[in-house]
Each structure stands twice: as structure tokens, then as C-alpha cells.
Amino acid sequence: MPARKIDLNLIMRIMGLDIGSKKIGVALSDQTGQIASASEVISRKSDSVAICRIKQIAEEFNVKKIVVGLPVNMDGSYGPSAKMSEKFAEKIKKEIEIDICFWDERLSTKEAENIMISASVSRKKRKGVIDKLAAQIILQGYLDRA
């Protein structure tokens, strides 16, 4: 039996971003848009270089939507981190023609850290992966509610 040909236009991957002042965690959904996986951490030395990398990932994996984690304060207000995430998302929109939405990511980084601590991951190793794990948690939360 010949292999089935997959129409790439039917595949809808979604990208999740955990935007920090120094690093951006990236996660990608599977082809069905149901399961999030941690992908990589992008250094944020330059916004233009970081956005270029996000664009490359979006093109490579046929990403149709980007979910940006919005670090809302516990009282629901927007602090400096939430405003920074919104501003960065606006920069992405100017460079990439793609749908962008926001997801309340309260405590996602803390959850990622707790997961790694319970798995006995050393502090040194946690530093390198916490951002992409936080992006995975953000994206999975979005996918579970979609």
C-alpha cells in the first residue's frame, strides 16, 4: 500500500512563546494542534535577531498561530512584564504575518521550576531549559482550552 500524502496546508502547528527580558522560550504543538513540546531558547540580545529566529521557526514548521504568554499579576493587573510581552508581540506582528494571541501565564515559570525540581534536575541544568518548559506549559494550557 503506498504511503499517504499529507497536505501541509491541513497541518496547523501553533507556537508558544515565554518572553523574558533576556531569553525567549519556544514551544511547538504537534501537527494536530493537541500536544505541546518544548523546542528551544532564543537569546534576546537583539529583538530583530530574536524575531528573525521566530520567523525561521514559524516558516520551517508551518506555524499558523503564535500564543504569547502574558504574565498577568495575581490581582489581574498588567505589570511591566506583561506590557513588555505585549510590546514584543507587536514587533513580531510587524515582521511576520501570523495570528498572535495572548495566554494568561500566571505562575508558568514557577510551575516549570517545580516540575524540574521534583525530577531532581540540577539548578545549572534548570537554567538552560526553564524558559522552553514554561513556553510548553503556556502552549499546552492554550491547547487544552481551545
Task: Explain how this protein is built.
By secondary structure, the protein is α/β, with parallel strands linked by helices. The protein has one domain (13-145): YqgF/RNase H-like domain (Nucleotidyltransferase, domain 5, 2-Layer Sandwich), CATH 3.30.420.140. 44% of the residues lie in helices and 25% in strands. The protein is built from four helices and five strands; from the N terminus they run E-E-E-H-E-H-E-H-H. Helix 3 (108-118) crosses helix 4 (123-145). The radius of gyration is 16 Å and the shape is globular.
Ordered list of secondary-structure elements with their pairings:
Blueprint: E1 13-19, E2 23-29, E3 36-43, H1 47-60, E4 63-70, H2 80-95, E5 99-104, H3 108-118, H4 123-145
Parallel strand pairs: 1-4, 4-5
Antiparallel strand pairs: 1-2, 2-3
Look at the structure and give the CATH class. Answer: Alpha Beta
Shape, please? globular
Count of all domains? 1
Which oligomerization state do the chains in this entry correspond to?
single chain
Q: How is the CATH topology named?
A: Nucleotidyltransferase, domain 5
Tally of helical runs: 4
What percentage of the residues does DSSP assign to strands (E)?
15-25%
Trace the largest sheet across and list its strands: 3-2-1-4-5
Q: Specify the structural class.
A: alpha/beta
CATH architecture: 2-Layer Sandwich
For the secondary structure, the number of strands is 5
How much is the average pLDDT? 85
Distance between the termini: 35 Å
List the uncertain runs.
none
- The helix content, as a percent range, equals 40-55%
**Biggest β-sheet strands, sense, barrel:** 5 strands, mixed
CATH superfamily: YqgF/RNase H-like domain
User: H/E element string?
Assistant: EEEHEHEHH
Q: Rg to the nearest angstrom?
A: 16 Å
